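FAQ

Q: What does a record look like?
A: Structure on top, sequence underneath. For example:
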């Protein structure tokens, strides 16, 4: 799901802390607003916006954290509205529903573990790139100059 790769420069302690905080922001939002999937994305988006002019290392990790929250929002929103329709529209609970809910729970658990691991490693100055969203972050986030 993720791999460690070298970064073009060793990040300073301040950069490592800011990059690590981009992942922790989603965890804090998760605890505060568990039933509402949009809160994680909003918290991460605010942190991303506040740090978009920082160093490349910080911007890259804020971008990766934001992209991971977008993917979670999509999956969790479907699960939320499907569950909502079962309770309020009296739709039948099907095997497809249970399969989807189990998939979403597994995906959320993996993302939670990956987020904690990445926050710890990033705080140490290690560059962790996730399998899909890391590649997207590479495309979206470009270095402004060689020293940033």
């Amino acid at each position: 799901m993720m791999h460690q790769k070298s970064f073009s420069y060793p990040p300073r302690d301040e950069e490592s802390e800011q990059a690590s905080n981009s992942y922790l922001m989603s965890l804090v939002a998760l605890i505060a607003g568990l039933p509402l999937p949009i809160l994680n994305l909003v918290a991460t988006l605010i942190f991303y916006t506040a740090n978009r002019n920082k160093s490349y290392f910080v911007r890259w990790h804020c971008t990766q954290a934001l992209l991971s929250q977008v993917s979670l929002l999509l999956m969790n929103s479907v699960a939320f509205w499907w569950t909502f329709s079962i309770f309020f529209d009296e739709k039948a609970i099907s095997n497809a529903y249970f399969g989807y809910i189990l998939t979403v729970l597994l995906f959320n658990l993996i993302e939670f573990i990956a987020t904690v691991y990445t926050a710890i490693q990033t705080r140490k100055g290690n560059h962790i790139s996730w399998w899909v969203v890391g590649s997207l972050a590479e495309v979206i986030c470009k270095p402004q100059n060689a020293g940033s």
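Q: Is there anything notable about this one?
A: The two ends are 27 Å apart (CA to CA).
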